[in-house]
Fold these 3 entries.
Entry 1:
Amino acid sequence: MASPVLTDHNVPHVSTIPANKGETIKLFVRERNGTPAGEPRRPVLMLHGRSVPGMVGFDLQYKQYGWAEKLAKAKFDVFIMELQGSGRSTRPMMGDSRNVSPAQQGLLSPNPNAMPYTGSPLYTSQLNNSQSDWDEVETVVDFILTTTGAMELDLIGWSAASQQLGPYTIKNPAKVRSLFLLAPIFPPKGRASAPGTDFDAPVALPVSLPAAAFGFPMTVSTKDSLEATWDKELHCPEQREAGMVDVVWKAIMENDGVGVNWGGAQAGQPTGLSRVRNSYWWGWNSTTVPLHGRLGNDVPVCIVYGAHDSIVNTSPDLGLLYFSVPELYKAIPGPQKLMFRIACAGHQMPWEREAQLIHRMSEHWLKNGKIEGATTGSYDRDEDGALTPLD
């Protein structure tokens, strides 16, 4: 078959982020269309997590790590979107280094700040919130359905993307054919709704939020922090290919034209910092997941996570930062749900040796609604591929 056709879109969107509310901004969307000529298009939307741009997570152009390209070659029309504040989409209030978290200002001297900045951020609030994220997903979903002529699409999310795609699906089940979540962030005790509202109520923005905790629009991350966090989850030989930290960091910097000039100990020799939007999220917890009985009934759900993923499974003592993938599986009300725990894999699975497994599992899910013969249930998958029920 012919190679998938690559098209980059800048989808216009009227922003509901308080920082630029009402302005028309651009949401970057990459399309890899593998639909054979004359056949109906089967759209798939992939959404990134909190800190890694979609182009790096799903379209890493290195060896066989390109997840979106793999699905496009399986005849899907694949779209990768980036929310405001990430990757190549509009980044309001993120161009000035003085808006970085005050605790991280030391990382910005001498690049780009000749002198350390000790003042308060110029914009003293978080950047985005759940409602603004859901609004952006809705704009892109409607763009995709209009572009492809399809009535529904499949959603794939990695990490914190679950906090956008899960609630969006509950609110818009007629537009979603299936939901595939890799290493989903799920706080069982998380905020159920925006301050002063309920889950199903429209939210008037800007929302009044606790300023002390959310008094800046962005944080930054370093290559060293990426490597250190990743190293903690390496527990098997060759779990991560040699040189992958360098490959991933280079891709992150290629998608951050401002952050690439920040950081480093020598003036004029920046090592690069990745700008990460500071978020305030709600609507994704043990109370909201079962709402209206839609997940696992109207929309089938598949969950995959690594056995060594220390980010998505944390201590119940952490309150809002208590995350649990098994609790998400339990909270989904319908029977059309699958969950797999993958041996020798961590949170960065799309860049580890099991990346090809994730490609295959998502393809089988999209094509058949089942994986390795299973349509429902939770399983542990060992290094040899054997499945043991977890239920």
Entry 2:
Amino acid sequence: MSDIVVPGFKGSELINDLNKALNENLSAEERAKLIKQVNGVFQFVLTNKDKKQEVFTVDIKKEGKVVRGKGAIKADAILSLADDDFVSLATGKLNGQKAYMTGKLKIKGQIMLAMKLDTVFKSIQEKSSKL
């Protein structure tokens, strides 16, 4: 499994950590339970301070894997936000609903699926060094 850390994107470190947690730190049973519970593909479009964008796809529908760029499976929810806001969201410092209501987070697709992101982040927080 290769790292997907992108220089200039703090969020990519968390996404890389999410990938490691899904594939190395969760047991097969824990991963299967999370996939069944979430059943969705998320695409994160992160914009850094230099206005550069990176896309990451998190498949928690079939395999429980993360890729840089658009994944092979169509995303159920596309979340666009600033890199720093993603870090705050993933670490629990920013409430997702508040971020959405204030325009910091834009969601295309299944908005209700995005509510399950808390489940994703919480389920791997104890298995991860950065989340």
Entry 3:
Amino acid sequence: MSYRLLAVVLCLPLLSGCSDYEWGWYVLNPSTEQGKTNLGFLLAGFKDTIYVSLLSMVFAMLLGLLVAFPALSEKPWLRAINRIYVEVIRSIPVLVLLLWVYYGMPTLLDISLNHFWAGVIALTIAESAFMAEVFRGGIQAVTRGQHEAAESLGLNYWQKMRLVILPQAFRQILPPLGNQFVYILKMSSLVSVIGLSDLTRRANELVVNEYLPLEIYTFLVLEYLALILLVSQAVRWLEKRIAIPSH
């Protein structure tokens, strides 16, 4: 991870010298009206970005697991419900769903919904369809013999899933789960359009004030790059921790 991030950072001087543009990296140093530096203002966006992404990932996994179970049923109408949900949700752009949740759901349900929870709900719904497919594939990858062994022990369906099937399926689906978390991290940038002060929103606000979009958005790229490389490294470490020894 560190080598890739270092390579990108080392490429910045080369990028700076490929044209006559005068880079104004000093934009990260000036103080805001509250006495905080622009750099600190940008970095503070990590909090909302990480909170929204983590909560959305946890809720999407729970909802996706519930949606996946009907796909494993022998009843056609349950499988049909699963397919309808998955296909409909996957067909809606995340930004459109986010706007509908933020502006439409409070009107429809007569509730108050702030931008943070609107972002979490929208990302959860959007991601749950993909999570359902990940869980379905992981559960179906567990061999039939494991199901039969669990049934021979007298376990009911839910005990079999909880104690035997899902732990094995989790090893299978950990890489795609990591990919989906990276996807949520990137899609979380869309919550900036409804006013949440995440990394992207803060960068946009600073661009309006400082008129140096190239420098600020380049730094935004580095922020997301560092965050996503950190997540990727954590997933690889977890894969090694739970891997079954080959000997």
